[in-house]
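quick one, 190 residues, struct below
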Amino acid sequence: MKLIVGLGNPGKTYENTRHNVGFFFLDAYVKQKGFESSSWKEKNRGMYLETTIQNEKVIFLKPLSFMNLSGEVVETYQKYYGIQTEDILIVCDDLDLSLGTIKLKEKGSCGGHNGLRNIELHLKTQNYKRIKVGISNNKEMDTANYVLSKFSKEEQEIMTKLQPKMIEILDFYFEKPFSILMSQYSEKNR
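---
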């Protein structure tokens, strides 16, 4: 069984903000694959969708606890479904990557990302897979204000054009070892 988690903040206020990249790509994947007919359900402070891919049960999860408490929700789902840490994949934003750059990591520190920091706290490990999507950084803005700001029209177009590649990565996640995906899809920071 696999748990695919898209990080973000719940509510209309946060739609199309930089911090909601995880929600954005999970929604795009579910819609593209037609899984949304199963419909999202709400339980334990998360929106989740259960499906089967490659004969394996998969849970897609969008924590509704707000970013900084994402780990609480991830841990609840992990324990409820008995999911191994190595079968958890987190999709999130990354300030240190240029806009639209993709980086896959199998383990490592949170890199200052509060959602990942909370996940590490609750999973008690840094050894979980992640797909990080660059949102750039604006050193002239407060970091919290920046990550909660909306993408410009041009930036949103970049994110939309990234959808096919993100969908392809998630497709192959169910077929190939993660080490191969890291070598195929991790990009140099532009």
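The first strand starts at residue 2 and ends at 6.
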